[in-house]
Amino acid sequence: VSEEELAWRCECGAYLNCPPDAFRYDPNPALPGIWRYASSLPLERPDRPVTLGEGMSPFVSCDWAYNGGTARIHCKFDAISPTGSYKDRGIAVQVSRLRELGVQRIADDSSGNAGASMAAYCAAADIPCDIYVPEAASEAKCLQIAMYGANLVKVPGPRENAGTAARESAKGAYYGGHNWSPYYIHGIKTCSFEIFEQLGNEVPDNIVCPAGQGCTIRGAFFAFSEIMKAGKSARMPRIFGVQSEACPPLYEAWRRGEKKPHPIERKPTIAEGIASLVALRGDATLDVIAKSNGGMAAVSEKAIWEGLQQLAKKGLYVEPTTATALAGLTKFLEEGVIRPDEKTVVVLTGFGLKTTELIMRLRQNPPA
Amino acid sequence: VSEEELAWRCECGAYLNCPPDAFRYDPNPALPGIWRYASSLPLERPDRPVTLGEGMSPFVSCDWAYNGGTARIHCKFDAISPTGSYKDRGIAVQVSRLRELGVQRIADDSSGNAGASMAAYCAAADIPCDIYVPEAASEAKCLQIAMYGANLVKVPGPRENAGTAARESAKGAYYGGHNWSPYYIHGIKTCSFEIFEQLGNEVPDNIVCPAGQGCTIRGAFFAFSEIMKAGKSARMPRIFGVQSEACPPLYEAWRRGEKKPHPIERKPTIAEGIASLVALRGDATLDVIAKSNGGMAAVSEKAIWEGLQQLAKKGLYVEPTTATALAGLTKFLEEGVIRPDEKTVVVLTGFGLKTTELIMRLRQNPPA
Lengths: 368, 368
Prior knowledge:
Low-confidence stretches of chain A: none
Helix content of chain A: 25-40%
Strand content of chain A: 5-15%
Largest interface: A-B, 46 and 46 residues
Oligomer: homodimer
């Protein structure tokens, strides 16, 4: 399938990937943010990006107490980004590529953060866009999407309905769904390039991520694969994904040794950003977790809320979706899966200011 | 007055400053964020800072349309910071210094952003703090302050009452008001060091800032003075401050050629972060605007709201306080005070996500 025909998936219905050998980790320190990784990006003209100044987000170390001890951990505070979520890295690359391809209008679906990001970068690129969100999406995120000038469409029912609506609406036009995009992930992976450099060109022992569609997980694997291929390191970190017990299709598959997301019944969760029943590249996500000798956990709503509060008291304010990773970290430490003397990085994906309403509700009415 | 006695002001009641000759612009590119400017910071041990990864915020260029033309402008998107506002630069330096001095508890007063920042950095430093805010402070900011674990005190009446309450409460303890602090401004000035470097070691023609207490303005003047002293440039940019017509004590003084903030009657404004009746260092702020051959403007609530919307459609989402600078920019361009072919930087101080509620109200009920 050629890009020139603007296919967003294969004729057989499968998702598309960029050829993995196309990329080379070779940072150019003279360039700003993610654009220093031009040799790793699927762009013809990485010197002419659509940019809002994304990348080089904070890297903060702190002590993390759990039942049984305290570990020194490193937080990649990737919520500190032009729209308040790590999605900006991926969307900046995706929109830059779609502009190169001459796309005239973009439709995307999102639980909120990717939609805000897509709306912002389309605004910067002067490309009209339609953002489909589930009706229950956070008020702050919906307002943000509308303020960027996007056409915001609220779709009743679960998250998946927004995807269907976006693809149907796109019809002849290009469907720019970030999860379907072969370009998006190559922006996301730059987060792990920065982790490597912010550790002083060292590979951590463990990376812990919230897991919904799994893009931070696959991004980390791609990045460290490129770092190894470039001869800068001989090893891969263990990559861990964490889901809410209320919606754990990847965790259930991992636990059973299955290769595809396990069908589950979804319950309501405060981790709205990862409440995905269907993970499009779920097979690939499970595969890289296994290849990295990593693992998964499912955590309770109570543990997520506790993780959020514990992190805020270190000066790092995140949304509940992100706190899933902290709850998982605590679990991994308590079970001895991760040792306190190991070098562990947690990826903080979304800013607390994105979910003021929800956090206010949780303070008044904490999960039991 | 010696620092060891932990005075926060002179015995005569005046504010204190650090000796200006103590600082030298000599960036160390190997260090992260604002800590690369260690030689410009009032710290004994800048290698042991209280940090949340502040600094090196986005620098984004875009076209800005006004009645009569379009100018290419540069936005220093300093809202993209660990707590969502530019205050983090100043508070990181201030809290680092207060920890060096052995301060055990800090009280500050704020319209919201500095309070959130102080709460976060005190959390990171493990120093208890009390944050006094006006009762009308934004819900999102109050929640953020509380989540960091600070003791949040809402004080009825105008902004100034929060200051009085904080100073009275501090009693024997150290009052850590950021506006009174001699350290805070030296963190704020690093924003302009970055502007210089992000322009490729060039001084812009103009810098436009929202003006309340005037710290971005004085910070810019300090920074470019140090850059000149270091022989990296021979000139100072023109520095412009913008206030709301509803609360313009600095503008009214500037217009009249007075040396101190002019007494005014304050009206309600959506620019809550700069609704200061009393600018503590107002004399110094007016002085540096004059020395830089800059100027001031006062803008309507309607123009602020329009500036906010126009900027959001470039992918940059800010709070109304920040948009004051954009409304001012439009005015300066339309009046020919700033020419479109000049190199103009606007400092974007606070993230839109900080004021979701207010922006929602403005969409429903725009100012006439």
